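Box 3.1 A note on notation
Throughout this textbook, protein chains are presented in two layers. The first layer is the amino acid sequence; the second is a token string describing backbone geometry. Keep the layers aligned when reading.
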Amino acid sequence: MNIDVSRLITADMKRAAEQDVIRSAINAERDRRIAGGFEFNGHRFQSRPEDRENIAGAATAALGAIVNGALEGDLRWHGGDADFVWIDEENLPHPMDAQTVYALGQAAMQHKQAHIFAARALKDAETVPADFTTGPYWP
């Protein structure tokens, strides 16, 4: 009987494969939580990838308006004919001046960053807790 050593699976290979599965599960939980929305000024806002893209674009435009002199309370800072509004998770409109839109962008960034660092801490842990998806490990 010949043994093909290229097909042997070592204990290290098994551990590495198990760690890959755990890391993938942590990443999936991180992404689910990032996309699950965040609180800002007492309201919940959506944060799926397309929402974060929209928020980042609006925050960039708001920063440009601030640099160009947009004042607090000016709801037409964007150059449109109507007040600028952002719609929350419950489909309620919220009028926002440029400063508030910029702050919304900062809150979205902080929401995502906090989850990225929480996931990193879990992946760096000596032992990943079995309840990492439901335990107190996330912001």
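The radius of gyration is 22 Å. Helices lie at 11-34, 49-67, 98-124.
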